[in-house]
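Q: For a teaching handout, I want to show students what a protein-ligand complex looks like in token form. Below are the inputs, and the small molecule is S-adenosylmethionine. Please produce the holo structure.
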Amino acid sequence: MNQFLQQATEKRESLINSDTNCFRLMNGYTDGHGGVFVESYADRLAVATLGGEIPTGLKEELRSTGKTVYWKRLDQQEKTAPTHLFGPPQETPFPILENGVTYEANFQSGYSQGIFLDQRLNRAEVRRRAQPQQRILNTFAYTGAFSVCAALGGATTTTLDLSRPYLDWGKRNFEQNKLNLDEHYFCKGDTFHWLKRFAKQGRTFDGIILDPPTFSRDDKGKIFRVEVNYDSLVKLASACLAPGGWILACTNCRRLSLEDFETLLLKGADRSMKLHHAAMPLDFAGDDYLKSVWIEY
Ligand SMILES: C[S@@+](CC[C@H](N)C(=O)[O-])C[C@H]1O[C@@H](n2cnc3c(N)ncnc32)[C@H](O)[C@@H]1O
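A: Here is the structure, written as tokens, with S-adenosylmethionine included.
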């Protein structure tokens, strides 16, 4: 019983502790089922499949846990919210814990559940780097998880996203961690426009986080494609970077190799800057789709 889930859980024992209760529990073929991914959020399970079926044996294992289980498909054009499969339905947002930081997760919020678990190590590193008196800019911020970590490190944060509901969610994440919202900035709008505005105003940051969608279009219809335009994004960010500052540049664009990504980053960065690639967390072993590069002097 529970052969695959049990084995996958044992592999992740070093991750699960009283400070962290959210992680990827099964990662495709590495854990016995290609195209099947299971994430655990405070003991509730979210299954994602590349096809229209959950393998029968695994489905039974999931049912027998008695836990809340939701399911979403990754292969459909329309990105829909996960649907309830087994166990008690989770119809309201609920807190999850990562490295002692609380975030709000939600199975009703559409395609994504409020946090990208593959960014765990980067969030921890942002928290480690952030210092009091520093200013950290989190662009494409989604629910502001990076900002929360920077603020817990003592920095003053600016959280930037196109979506008002995501910024509000970010504010709730600040409140969950008893951070004072009056000491931080939340900006609704386009990253490209804001970066230009900050540079014009001479406003600089000690750290800037870039994690754009693979493809986007700004309000004037201008298209941004990670594999073509990332250098221009780095260039805009570099113009707002304080001396000695860093940029964290991420992409999960599978079409782009790490080598090509780094070439693009160097094209956009100040020539004297160095790149350092950071690995993905252990629970995502087997598929290095997320490329994270620290750019610094
Ligand atoms: C992949 S998510 C970022 C995840 C986030 N870095 C994290 O780790 O939690 C992309 C986010 O970018 C936002 N977004 C997309 N285009 C944008 C733009 N041009 N300017 C600002 N935000 C944008 C979306 O609303 C979404 O919240």
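A: Two things your students might notice: The chain has two domains: 3-90, 117-296. The mean pLDDT is 95.
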